[in-house]
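Hallway conversation turned thread

IA: we were arguing at lunch whether anyone had actually written out NUDIX domain-containing protein end to end. Turns out nobody had. So, for the record, here is the sequence (156 residues) and right after it the structure tokens. Reply here if something looks off.
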Amino acid sequence: MTTSAGILLYRLDPEPEVLIAHMGGPYWAAKDAGAWSIPKGEFDEADESALDAAHREFEEELGVAPPAVAYAELGTFAYSSGKRVTVFVADGAGFQAPTEGFGEFELEWPPRSGRTASFPEVDRAEWVGLDAARERLVKGQRPAIHALEEHLAAAS
């Protein structure tokens, strides 16, 4: 089973917004709905904690460190594929979405060409309202938005 961890930053401006990232590479280039993600990545539970992995992956994907604030575990969400992602939330008020410096990955492109090309892991990050996030996020991460709404309601 694949295990991932990520960070979902939120801000109240005055309505709740979250920071999400558009997945990079040629497959996602022309897509919007279902083509965004919480900054996250895979980790081995035997080697690192989920929160440490979430911080590492945030920086690898977005090219900047996550803000030095308190983080709360929002929950672990299962994809239909069986993959699981543990999401941590934090108040990201004042955090500016990066516009460059994103991490990269290599992929044979075009397929079966024998050529390898580098692509950004994400090609942009944006603050969006919760309804927009629900539409844009990959299906397996959408329950995290509902859990965030419950988290914010409980905190107020």
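OS: looked through it. The beta strands are 3-12, 16-23, 36-37, 40-42, 72-78, 84-91, 104-108, 116-120, 122-129.
IA: good, adding that to the notes. The first strand starts at residue 3 and ends at 12.
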